[in-house]
Amino acid sequence: MTNAQPVQPGLIVVDKPQGITSHGVVSRMRRICGTRKVGHGGTLDPMATGVLIVAVGKATKLLTYVSGLDKSYAATIRLGQATVTDDAEGDVTASADASAIADASIHEGLAAMTGEIDQVPSAVSAVKIDGQRAYKRVRDGETVELKARRITIAAIEIEAIRREGAFIDVDIDVSCSSGTYIRAIARDLGDALGVGGHLTALRRTRIGGFGLDTAATLETLAERSAAGEPLGALTMGEAAARLMPTRTATEAEAKALSYGKSLEAAGIEGRYAVLGENGDLLAVMIEKGDQAKPETVFAAAS
Q1: Which residues does 102 contact at the CB level (< 8 Å), separation at least 6?
Q2: pLDDT tens digits along 233-262
Q3: Coil, strand or helix: which one is 244?
């Protein structure tokens, strides 16, 4: 495995293409970066495109702090047709004429899904049932019933309502908590309106502070690597600053952290990153009383 230049540990925001799994993106990135130590945060279905955070080297330790971030999506719901997967990749299970559905009913149906709600994940999902993924059970012919999960949908904005014969296509932007299934929004809207629904397009536009504005395609990244150019990765310090509050350590504090020692509390609530004076990521800390205890140390003493 070779690469035009050494790739420093960091996070790369990839604009995932359609038709490839998130693991497939990781495989491509291993070749581009010249290392097997590559991981991703936040799986996207093969049909979906958009923001996929890829970590290289020691930055894979940061992925645990990516998984719970809020997300934003652009999606298209087709009303009048239900599928086994709740998206366009599955077989059609039912069809109905949706042409009589009023725009107002669509607005009301989506408005009812905002806020804190209990959402049942799509049956063809990565949720585990007795240790086995739900999607595998469905593909093996089982009928799967998943329990509802509490999620938060901050907003659903309708961008367009397009009438296509018996179908209605609804373009939406969604801001939501981690664990939200956009496919389930399509399914539930179709069920509420009595005509069935599924997702025909999905693009993730943001994970936390990481958006499409800093994303690059796999082709662009491969070209940069072949030309010996920087891939555009965020350093571990830059990435940590987008994930959580930061604190700068003195030289003496940095040395103490390298041995896993606690620091004096700084009065910062919740988890935060400690950076060196040069901006390098040293540790992630949580304060307890008058002590800041390291949760993960990135610059350990050798």
Answers
A1: none
A2: 999 999 999 999 999 999 999 999 999 999
A3: coil
Indicate the residue type of 7: V
If we measure between CA atoms, which residue out of 57, 52, 59 comes closest to residue 23?
Answer: 52
pTM of the shown model: 0.90
Amino acid making up residue 73? Y
CA angle in degrees (0–180, nearest 5) for 87-107-186? 10
Helix ranges, the chain (H): 22-33, 103-111, 134-139, 182-193, 218-226, 236-243, 251-258
Amino acid at 57: G
Residue with tokens 């690059």: 216
Is residue 275 within 8 Å of residue 233, measured between CB atoms? no
Tell me if 78 sits within 8 A of 168, measured CB to CB: yes
Sign of CA dihedral 231, 236, 239, 241: negative
Active centre residues (catalytic): 45
